[in-house]
Automatic annotation (TrEMBL):
It holds the Pfam family GST_N_3. One of its GO terms (cellular component) is cytoplasm. It comes from the Bacteria. This is Glutathione-dependent dehydroascorbate reductase. Residues 115-234 form the GST C-terminal domain. Keywords: Oxidoreductase, Transferase. It comes from Paracoccus zhejiangensis. One of its GO terms (molecular function) is methylarsonate reductase activity. Its EC number is 1.20.4.2, 1.8.5.1, 2.5.1.18. Residues 27-110 form the GST N-terminal domain. PANTHER family: GLUTATHIONE S-TRANSFERASE OMEGA, PTHR43968. It catalyses: L-dehydroascorbate + 2 glutathione = glutathione disulfide + L-ascorbate; methylarsonate + 2 glutathione + H(+) = methylarsonous acid + glutathione disulfide + H2O; RX + glutathione = an S-substituted glutathione + a halide anion + H(+).
Amino acid sequence: MNGPLVSLGADAGVCVDGVCAIPEAAPKLTLISFPTCPYVQRAVIALRERGVEYEVIHVDLANKPDWFLQISPLGKVPVLKIERAGEKPVILFESTVILQYLDETLPGQRLFPEDALDRARQRAWVEYAGSVLGELWKLVQARDEAGFTEARTALIARLQPLEAEVAGPFFAGAEFSAVDAVFAPAFRQLDALETVRHLGVTDDLPKLQAWRQALAARPSVAGAVPPDFLDLYLGRLRAAGSYALTAN
Ligand SMILES: N[C@@H](CCC(=O)N[C@@H](CS)C(=O)NCC(=O)O)C(=O)O
């Protein structure tokens, strides 16, 4: 993934009366990652939407290296290392913060809207995506049918409010936005689980069903995980005894 960095973004040179400041070199971006992490995918999707170069370093979360623990206050991925010429590297953690930083600094079409109210609304649903991931986590953690059924019902209830919000084909309409970037990894998990068991959690939510499909087809989303994602994700759940992987 090494290559020339092309981003100028918000650091691009400004011209006043025909005199332009020399643009700063784009920072080198390194994403500290775990191959199946949905929070990491948020950052990857934002980077891929803007077509900039970045490096990826995967860490073993079961055996976190010291260098990682030193830079990640919560011991979690994603972490984004930003190296600007002549400055000390800066570390960002928390996927939503990384998403916003990338959105504000990379060149190209922004994921968060210009209008403050639209932007606030997007932030609210970005936050909500975290709670959907939380329900999904409970679903895959269930070890028996009763736990699975309860978690499935809770997940459907959490997805339901979105049905009235999705404009289609993407969350806010024709343009891919921040809310799309954060829900796509959750839907990817659903798609992966449904290669084994039909969960049907969006069967009665036609707009969500179409949204899932539109997101899965988006190149930035499709390419946001390693090619062996399915095996890695399902393999980890199988090893943990997830009831969700019991075929129905
Ligand atoms: N709120 C964090 C959540 C990140 C998170 O939970 N990452 C998981 C992997 S998907 C992690 O690093 N877990 C390691 C641990 O908790 O020890 C974010 O949005 O970045």
